[in-house]
Amino acid sequence: MSLRAFHILFIVISVFLAAGFGVWAVRHYQATRDALIFVLGAASLVGSVLLAVYLVWFISKTRKMGPS
After folding, report:
1. Domain tally for the chain?
2. 36: which residues sit within 8 A by CB, 6+ positions away?
3. What is the torsion angle, in degrees rounded to the nearest 10, for the CA atoms of residue 10, residue 16, residue 21 and residue 27?
């Protein structure tokens, strides 16, 4: 596995983990009304979107380098 492929895999896993935590935290907030949980969940969801944008940018930037 090339470094590029590992990086793409790592980012994809990070997107899913951040989104999963964000969804869990927002649902947990609905049950507990703990503001810190909501803030952490919202930040995690924003982070997952930013990671997805970075993934698209990274793939387009490194596409010229050859196969992964």
Report:
1. 1
2. none
3. 180
Q: Is residue 67 part of a domain?
A: no
pLDDT-based confidence at residue 67 (cuts at 50, 70, 90): low
**pLDDT tens across 7-50, in order?**
999 999 999 999 999 999 999 999 999 999 999 999 999 999 99
C-alpha distances (whole Å) from 44 to each of 6, 15, 28, 53, 68 are 22, 9, 14, 14, 28
- To the question of pTM greater than 0.85 for the whole model, the response is yes
Which domain, by its residues, includes 44? Answer: 3-62
Asked, for residue 13, whether it belongs to a domain, the answer is yes
Length of the chain equals 68
Q: Please report whether residue 25 resides in a domain.
A: yes
Residue 17: inside a domain:
yes
Q: Is 66 strand, coil or helix? A: coil
